[in-house]
Amino acid sequence: xxxxxxxxxxxxxxxxxxxxxxxxxxxxxxxxxxxxxxxxxxxxxxxxxxxxxxxxxxxxxxxxxxxxxxxxxxxxxxxxxxxxxxxxxxxxxxxxxxxxxxxxxxxxxxxxxxxxxxxxxxxxxxxxxxxxxxxxxxxxxxxxxxxxxxxxxxxxxxxxxxxxxxxxxxxxxxxxxxxxxxxxxxxxxxxxxxxxxxxxxxxxxxxxxxxxxxxxxxxxxxxxxxxxxxxxxxxxxxxxxxxxxxxxxxxxxxxxxxxxxxxxxxxxxxxxxxxxxxxxxxxxxxxxxxxxxxxxxxxxxxxxxxxxxxxxxxxxxxxxxxxxxxxxxxxxxxxxxxxxxxxxxxxxxxxxxxxxxxxxxxxxxxxxxxxxxxxxxxxxxxxxxxxxxxxxxxxxxxxxxxxxxxxxxxxxxxxxxxxxxxxxxxxxxxxxxxxxxxxxxxxxxxxxxxxxxxxxxxxxxxxxxxxxxxxxxxxxxxxxxxxxxxxxxxxxxxxxxxxxxxxxxxxxxxxxxxxxxxxxxxxxxxxxxxxxxxxxxxxx
Length: 540
Ligand code: GDG
Fold this sequence. Notes:
The protein is an alpha/beta fold. The protein has 21 helices and 16 strands. The relative contact order is 0.10. This is Trehalose 6-phosphate synthase/phosphatase. One of its GO terms (biological process) is trehalose biosynthetic process. One of its GO terms (cellular component) is cytosol.
């Protein structure tokens, strides 16, 4: 028998996350086009989802259904279905309570050790429970015995328990993309026990680092009185066991390496190098280069604005003198950073360190240009609006204080860019400043190195993120220590190419071996090992 006509029943992998890896956009003709989202989760698991036909993704659409007619909502739903995604629609009230409220105003700050920012509000907790139930109602009907459900992140910590009750015979994994705090911090959450009991519904609980695993175990011991074995197994009161372990996330190394060689990324890099005077171009036609200086002298002889006003009549501007003080033999350098504009990313502290560099090492005047990409994030939340105002002000202060006529120290971009220009920025950076105050992993540090494959370039990296456990050859700093970060930045700018390559090769070898793909496969293998072994023959 050929097997033709026989129904093949494949076990499924159901990925569940707050947001889907795609968004829909309304075209002018009223149709809906679907676009890949940027961000860690979409780039890490997106390729796995795309490559596995038996993998579906359930998540919130990110849209407000009130904006659309029922017919349009159905079109949006169908657009997602074409990408094997099931879209959930939340009401404005649910978004405010579950997403902006409990997820972003309570769990996000608490898990990043910003307990002073955490809001404890019984109403948003109510919405968090409601939306977790909504997710359970969407997933339960499609999760059959033998299927695997992989839940992502802090938005859905009650979902493992809710699915455990509803879906016998399903393997359930949960992964946390942000840090897990110590019991001293976590126990301040009035609903800490409910959250722990919810998440322990999973067979396997994954974290980025061993430190976060240990924090979780300590919370389970302190708040629930449960012990964990050295193998990470936690025996639960209902006779089940849950296992906890560290699975440091990787990146699609080849994607970033390849993209950094795309023509758009190369054009971006070239443009940045021209503007910062690293390569002949714009700035070499102005006053800071040898040619520019000759032009300046010629124009001063002929009595230009510059010679009339800069030093004598407007000494407070001091522009000509600063330009003259620039050491023309010193090579120009570029510093880069890429972050969501979030208070955990340490952007104000980093700007102070950059400002200190210009103050303490005036020889960098005119010679170091900082490209700061700060992608908008959670713009409706007041804390984020305050942060934006603070960063705007600091950039303005530093640029106002140190700019020369033909040099601006900080180029500040507050828009989201496509991946190719982002890789162009990475590739242009002689130094990447990655200094979060707290971060689960931080993919930017890894992406920067992938865009410098076999090249020089130096990474200044915060000790407060998961990536610092792996990228030990970087210039590791305490991001709160402005002086030391300034010194590390200075050292990174001065590093010689051989030493930079030596450090990078060691880190790049690790990143090539542990990619996003091996991370997905590693987590799912481990899940299938710890989940009910009688299900093994039903899985693919
Ligand atoms: C969470 C955890 C953990 C940023 N701006 C643009 C853009 N990005 C991309 C970066 C990178 C991603 O967004 C940011 O990833 P991070 O890891 O730095 O930070 P979170 O978004 O906070 O992610 C974090 C991660 O989950 C994964 O587990 O590492 O600790 O907080 O990929 O490149 N991408 C594009 N344009 C932008 O303007 N294309």
